[in-house]
Amino acid sequence: MDYIPLEKPLADLELKIAELKSATGSSQLNLNPEISELEEQLVVLRQEMFGKLTPYEMVQLSRHPMRPNSLELIANIFDDFVELHGDRNFLDDKAIIGGIGRLEGASVVVIGHQKGRGTKDNIFRNFGMPRPEGYRKALRLMSMAERFKLPIITFIDTPGAYPGIGAEERGQSEAIGKNIFVMSRLKVPILTFVVGEGGSGGALAIGVANRVYLLQYATYSVISPEGCASILMGDASKAQDMANSLKLTASSALELGVIDAIIAEPEGGAHRNPQKISLEIKNCIAKDLQDLSQFSGETLKKMRQEKFLKMGSILGGGLN
């Protein structure tokens, strides 16, 4: 298990427990009482730590190197998944994956941001930051879903769209804007799960859905805390202060009406039990698709448009 600085006290205790268990297995010493005591301390420490996380600590958890990524969640949730590649225009962007799978025997289209494991894989995946062709690949798959009347499931986990010169030259903003426009008009059910970082338009480009969920320690924001601190304060080290102001946590997003619900994570984070969080998401998808199946395509489209148009509205203040 890779650890982040936040988890160091937990990692130290877990290492001691592992060493005692190893010593017990290789000798006749009975260290079970000591092991039990440390395990109780570990439970208490974990509950204390995760009961008072700051927004920036949640940002760190949303970026955890072992957090379940889209391909891992897809493997756990869907059967017979077949990945489809390319935007049929320029290339296959590895930061966005998508294809067709089955859930309880029914076909669905699945799209998600994809981060890597380790430096080499992250470079291959461009750290989960799509270029325009990634969004155009997603758009191609969405259009296919509309044509064959298949539900769309998306997984968001990106710091944001890639801001490189080549991406801008090939129409990054147009690709994002077009996706948002097209998603608002599709007549099939769309479900979105923010499973890690939900950064800016790079997230929203595959996030205009009938139902939007955040995992408990995921984040959803117009900009990263570091980016916000750099722009507004000229100092990226002020990221912790900006995280407090950005309202990027799941509880803030729910309070502001940006998402529909929060999916609880296993104690310590989704990386502690990927199978459990996958089952929670799978059950949520199955229930929502059953609920949304009663609505016509036109109604689904109208519900989605109304959902997003009312965000940020001010009643009684001259704006609607």
Q: What is the CA–CA distance across the termini?
A: 49 Å
How many separate helices? 14
H-E string: HHHHEEEHHEHHEHEEHHHEHH
Strand content: 15-25%
Structure summary, number of beta strands: 8
The main pleated sheet reads as: 8 strands, mixed
- Write down the CATH topology of the largest domain: 2-enoyl-CoA Hydratase, Chain A, domain 1
What's the average pLDDT? 90
What best-fitting shape do the alpha-carbon axes yield? globular
Supply the CATH class of the largest domain. Alpha Beta
Number of domains: 2
Instruction: Tell me which CATH architecture of the largest domain applies here.
Output: Alpha-Beta Complex
Radius of gyration: 21 Å
Task: Please mark out the parts with pLDDT under 50 across 5 or more consecutive residues, or reply none.
Answer: none
Assembly context of the chains: single chain
Helix content: 40-55%
Structural class: alpha/beta
| CATH level-4 homologous superfamily of the largest domain | 2-enoyl-CoA Hydratase, Chain A, domain 1
Describe this structure in words.
With about 325 residues, this protein is of the alpha/beta class. It has two domains: about 5-50; about 60-310, 2-enoyl-CoA Hydratase, Chain A, domain 1 (Alpha-Beta Complex), CATH 3.90.226. It is built from 14 helices and eight strands. It has helices spanning about 10-25, 30-50, 55-60, 70-75, 120-125, 130-150, 165-170, 170-185, 200-205, 225-235, 240-245, 250-255, 275-290, 295-310, and strands at about 80-85, 95-105, 105-115, 150-160, 190-200, 210-215, 220, 260-265. Strands 1, 2, 3, 4, 5, 6, 7 and 8 form an eight-stranded mixed sheet that branches. α9 links the parallel β5 (about 190-200) and β6. The protein is globular, with a radius of gyration of 21 Å. The mean pLDDT is about 90.
